[in-house]
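can u do me a favor
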């Protein structure tokens, strides 16, 4: 009987700083101590990004804390981790990044129902300052509307 794992680490800044175009779910090549630390929820993708090296996609700057019960064979917390995608997806992403200057941003790190660590990534375009202001304005408007509705219902 498998236990229900609720690891769901999000990159909250990404939604504010980037406009998402395409989303993909990629596997991650991890060491044994890395997956154990992720299952404990001790990982962060806030400052991370993805980069191509020799036709392979790597997530850079993803922080996975060292596993507390490991010996001297523990992993490096900030090492590059290879992402596992199908070849046609990799080719498409690499072409988009090279030709149009888009970036690949990790959105969510989670454990799937089979117990494997997955990373949801997105092809993204950086927002300009006025786009960010528009996002803040929309968020404030929604907040005010919900307050008014709440007062009206009481």
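np, heres the sequence
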């Amino acid at each position: 009987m498998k236990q229900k794992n609720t690891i769901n680490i999000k990159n909250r800044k990404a939604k504010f700083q980037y406009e998402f175009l395409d989303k993909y779910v990629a596997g991650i090549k991890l060491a044994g101590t890395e997956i154990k630390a992720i299952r404990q929820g001790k990982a962060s993708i806030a400052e991370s990004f993805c980069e191509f090296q020799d036709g392979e996609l790597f997530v850079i700057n993803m922080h996975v804390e060292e596993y507390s019960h490991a010996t001297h064979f523990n992993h490096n917390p900030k090492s590059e981790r290879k992402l596992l995608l199908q070849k046609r997806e990799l080719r498409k992403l690499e072409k988009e990044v090279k030709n149009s200057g888009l970036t690949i941003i990790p959105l969510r790190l989670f454990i799937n129902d089979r117990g494997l660590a997955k990373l949801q990534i997105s092809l993204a375009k950086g927002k300009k300052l006025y786009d960010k202001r528009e996002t803040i304005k929309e968020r404030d408007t929604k907040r005010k509307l919900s307050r008014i509705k709440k007062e009206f219902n009481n």
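The chain has a mean pLDDT of 83. hope that helps!!
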